[in-house]
Fold:
Amino acid sequence: MTATLDAPAETTEASVPLLVADDLVKNFPIRGGVFSRTVGHVSAVAGVSMQVARGETLGLVGESGCGKSTTGRLLLNLLRPTSGTVTFDGRQISRMKGKELAEMRRRFQIVFQDPYASLNPRMTVGTTLAEPLKFHFGWPKDKIDGRVSELLSTVGLSPEHANRFPHEFSGGQRQRVGIARALALEPELIVLDEPVSALDVSIQAGVMNLLQKLQDELGLAFVFIAHDLSVVRHISDRVAVMYLGKIVEQGPHEAIYERPAHPYTQALLSAIPLPDPSRERARERIILFGDVPSPADPPSGCRFRTRCWHKAALEEGGVDTSVCANEEPLLQIHTEKGIDHPAACHFAQVRSLV
Amino acid sequence: MSTDDVLLSVRDLRAGFDTDDGMVRAVDGVSFDVTRGEVFAIVGESGSGKSVTAMTVLGLLPTIKIEGGEILWKGRDLLSLDEQERRRVRGKEIAMIFQDPLTALNPVHTVGRQIGEMARIHEGMKKGEAFDRAVEMLDLVGIPEPRKRAKMYPHEFSGGMRQRAMIAMAITCKPDLLIADEPTTALDVTVQAQVLEVLLGIKDEINSAIVLITHDLGVVAGLAHRVMVMYAGRQVELGTTDEIFYETRHPYTLGLLASLPRLDDMGDEPLVPIVGSPPSLIRKPTGCAFHPRCRFSRVPGLCDAEVPQLRLISGDAHMAACHYAEELQEVSVETLREQVDVRSEAEIADLLSLDQVLGHADSDAATDTGEATAAGAADALAAAGNARAQVRADATSTSPRAEAEAGIATTDEEEAPAPGPEANEPSDNGAAGATSASVAQAPVAPVEKPVAPADRPEGKDAR
Amino acid sequence: MTLTDPAAPGAIEGTLRAGADAELGAARPLRADVWRRFRRNKLAMVGLGFIVFISLVAIFAPLIAPFEITERSSGAFRDGPSADHWFGTDGIGRDVFSRVVYGARVSLRIGVAATVMSLVIGLLLGAVAGFATGWLDTLIMRLTDVFLAIPYIVLAVAIATVAGRSENSVILILGLTGWLAICRIVRSSFLSLKQLEYVEAAQALGFSSWRIMFRHILPNALQPIIVYGTIAVGSVILSEAALSFLGVGPQDPTPAWGLMVSDGSGSIVNAPHLLFFPGAAIFLTVLSLVFIGDGLRDALDPKLK
Structure:
């Protein structure tokens, strides 16, 4: 389902986007029965396409079960897609293997959510950072040590900490080490999977600032996966909203935050509380009904229709909404309705909710 | 706030845990009141003591040592009651909702039975009656087809529904006080909205008070009448929601507000973090527990010498525990954002981790002689080709603490990142690079780990 | 209010003096932590003491034992403990004490060698099964099932028939049957550790599977193995005793404790010392190993802190 996608924010001389994902699908088998046969599958990612240009940040947001983490891993070939392709700088990486893949891996990296599980507790921080350098480049010891010190300082830690173990650091510091590790091989793109969600609020800001600074100085592209829309707004150039394995809306960040067109995006934005009592009390609240359907058995047509408040409102107004159940809405730009970015809804309509 | 409506009155509560490393002072002199029908929020990050305070009120922590204070519930001191009496209060008059709906419900009993149990135990109802009451409660919390649902098991419910079931269980006996410990932290944001809606509705329905424990200031802004901010086991600010958000009088609260990314931000406003990490609850910093991370601390001085007491700052009951709280009137989140250059080396650096530089066996001896350590530290940093040492050296030589001026920050602040001259010599202010981070703040994992998961806004992110 | 530069030294100096030394202790490498916790466990320390003692006995056996293992004292048959023979003599006049002392070498050697063999096999197979999953995992698991299904005794006798009765055949038997449990433990450790993000990170960095298995996962999977291995040495020593009863295992004159117990079992009424002393040696050794194993488990598990 490659519908019309909005173009990346800036296209410089490298107008070929750095990362292109085309119709990615990932199904996980459900095993049942005595012989663990595959009785069905969970479509975690059901046809996702996106592009990331050099130096820009694409925010990927959604709630649990929407498939954003799976998508992140598909982009880096940490998971092989069931179908669809991922192209990095013109080369298809989704089917690469072995040495070729290992070499390509230098150019894109990942930072994880959990600062406690993302570092090997038995290896010192210095060893963790040195290993990729040794493995890929085979540098001599002092060159590696120098680079390790440099990496540590870049993320705001002291080079003296290289021979400490992860358990001696705080959560925020461990996350910084994770970032340093991702930077070690000088990648061009980093996928950040909820990098600040597990940190205290006051510490999140420091890490976010660090990321922003790194992007400015090193020209990195980020795919920033998060469920917290407030955090995403800060760092993203463009944002894609996911629901149950599909992208439902996508566009430059002002478009998504100020002119959302998809009922899910709108509900999401209205649900996020503002730390501002008077504004918060005055806000419009959209409450969704029911629960997220199981990804093993998604609704026909539009996957959001079972919880869609907009559909309910339209029905009350006498509009025939059978198309929602019969036809899957394509992610496309509805210029006729004055919407300037792609949204996957038959009845897309702009509404401001912040 | 008439005094006969005060349900819960906590006075100077001090409680902690005995560990091998020392006494963990989780609750260090906390006092507050909760009146009927209000929503009282206790806000803090990991290690602040907010959950422990609530659990202590209910007596749910068998290993905790109460060192002093009283917990008056409708006039009776809960601490003086024996376990049996306290159990009578628990559930019937004060009920609690926990964070993780997955583990809070017993997987081998149906939901209806668990909810009914409350009625059976506390009100002596028969099984049939209790079941009806359970169905009534499920309906109250907005669960569709309640009679059918009551016969189902917890694993058949979704996260949001489980949380609602837990709320139903808590309100079965129409308690006067509901303590909600991070009730929506593990839920998706749209589900959170649903659950909070339910919570508010119930409060009005049964006219109970709610003590809402959370780290999410957005939730507080929308729901709470009064707020108490905690840090390192102590209260730092207490007041109405508007006072806390719009007339902040404590540097920590201000720091929290300034570090929050907001949905209505244009996306360009800088986030101003609070540098460093929360302190160890075993060895708290001297004086004010927050002073090592405070942008306004005056050290040496009151800030590191004396523990600031909670005192009335403005209005009827707006209190703050800061020696210089009154002066904070001139400062707002915007001010902080303007004055602090968040991209500077000094800001990006996780400064307070440098205490480990000193902590190293090698530099042990040099602790007393600030200069030697500074030189060592500065060398290490210089070797990494970092401008940070430079920054700190500059900061040393041009002390930005121009207290005499009425202004907020001096321009020296802004110039700090700029390459300074040969100011690499540590002045007598102490070791330049080293001390700036040399706080009694080892990032001791055990302190953070138990509570860190509580701060996860989303516990179940499917992959 | 004046904003202080958080980088300013003065801002934090005061606290440095007050709290720095108290906090410095936080920087401890893992091993020291483990030792500290282990040390506090009295039973474990007693066990450790005994094992060290018995190891020294084994090493310095020639210096400690007054007689040779085959040396007979004429006239002193089946005598109880006396001034010359501290543990008495056996049916053909040999000094029990000396034999028990030399027996330490035999038993410890069998115990350690068989355990090491099981560990190596179990680690390799368990690691591959736990990491690779799929058909390789199934294959290895079915292999363990096959081994489990074979009666232990049949296997023992079979190997003894082929390899002869000796210390080495005991080691072979116990080594080839002991790996089963270890394989299971290692496999389950690998299965759960594989899910952790640092393994994913290693994959993202392009490391090969072997490297990830042995350099990243294995060090973290060792804890349960260390505990199990320690206790396994004790269990091997006990098994050696059992095998001696079956007539498999070292032959006379090798002073294996199990063999001595087996030989002495007939004389329990008239010459209990023949049973008692080697039996006590086995008992104390195994018990000490169990204490150490328990102590290690408690010391290694950070949650018990």
